[in-house]
């Protein structure tokens, strides 16, 4: 479980860093009305990162997963579900409207 969780956390961190550093600035420039939405998504990224750090700490030893790990996983799962639903509803159309040449470093697509 530890290996799978840490691998997932690493991929998600790469994805969110790519969004924050690459996709969101492009969207903010092209669609200024989305700036509050992008800021909300960035705040989610900070919360997700904090939860993942907590999980990494809880999983740092070889003991079996305990109730704290399950609680953190449930919290992370709920936050990510909410985040992805909000993201899909609010920015997917804008992302789809941009030409591929807009992306110089699309790390958010391929973590």
Globular, elongated, flat, extended or rod-shaped: what is the shape? elongated
Tally of structural domains: 1
| H/E series | HHH
Number of strands: 0
Feature tags:
111 residues; mainly alpha; Hemerythrin-like; Hemerythrin domain-containing protein
How does this structure look, described?
- The protein is an all-alpha fold and 111 residues long.
- The protein has one domain (2-97).
- Helices cover 76% and strands 0% of the residues.
- The model has no long low-confidence stretch (mean pLDDT 85).
Per-chain topology:
Layout: H1 2-30, H2 35-58, H3 67-97
Helix pairs in contact: 1-2, 2-3
InterPro entries: Hemerythrin-like
Organism: Nonomuraea spiralis
Pfam families: Hemerythrin (PF01814)
